[in-house]
Amino acid sequence: MNTADQYLKAIYLAQRIEDGPASTGTLADLLEVSPASVNEMIGKLEDRGLVDHEKYKGASLTDEGLGRAHDALQTYCIIERFLANVLEVEEYQDEARALESVIDDTVAERLDTIIDRPGECPDCFDADRDACERLEVGDGCAD
Amino acid sequence: MSLGQRVSSDHQLTRLLQIGVVLEEVVESRAAHHLDSLPPEERAAIDEEVRELLEEAADESADHRERLEALIDDLEADTVAYEEINALVDAQYGPPEDTDGVLYDQLANEETAYKFYDDLIDAIEASDGEFAIERERLLETLYEIREEEKEGVEEVTEIMEHRA
């Protein structure tokens, strides 16, 4: 997953948290970068037709941006579930964030063959908890 | 969220190598089970060439896994027992429907493993972080494994082409 995909994923989640356009502040918090960096990247994503940006309101994904955000979130979700349920990593969220930039969609899909991911992914992702709402840790089972 | 594609700590490197181990286990387990999972008439139709390919793939993956595990051991991190992963792979494994399915699955496994090592090498090379194992040894091992995965992809492709 590249940096653009990480931003698209964050915008998707921020839109859900805020129930509207994603504000720069929320994106900066989610991505742990400065608001200036967020604004710079939003501009680039807008140029590529992935995001619509309205001054004082925030960023919204275009249809194309939404598709890519879905894919990015699915990959992240697979990595989280793989870490939690296969490798039994307790800090699976932090580690998934550290690994998502190195794990390609193809590789994530292969890892998905050994985890039990629900069909509604990524809609079942809980943005506030930063994990799939069906991911339960501790019983060794995804559901 | 970590922005940028680089590996910067022993911990992160260990996790990635563990993912490599699991991908190898998937290849090994599936290659070993492909023949058993086919219906008897399909199994009889599998020729010697494909049998040899699957046996070699299983042996090679076991070798790759051991080499990755040797690196992980020197990073002094915990790893998951092979038997445990094998059981998970088996539990989620949908058998291929025919001979072509066997070859396609094998191809997908080898291609995924190749892609993984390629990305991992890029991410390590993009980082100037120090690891508990020698960078030269780490990269040399990963280069060799990536090359063998590439050869595996070529071998399966060749068999598929001349059977077509």
From TrEMBL, chain A:
One of its GO terms (molecular function) is DNA binding. Keywords: DNA-binding, Transcription, Transcription regulation. Residues 1-62 form the HTH dtxR-type domain. It holds the Pfam family Fe_dep_repress. Belongs to the DtxR/MntR family. This is Iron (Metal) dependent repressor, DtxR family.
From TrEMBL, chain B:
Keywords: Coiled coil. The keyword Coiled coil applies. Residues 43-85 form a coiled coil. This is Tumor suppressor TSBF1-like protein. It comes from Haloterrigena turkmenica (strain ATCC 51198 / DSM 5511 / JCM 9101 / NCIMB 13204 / VKM B-1734 / 4k) (Halococcus turkmenicus).
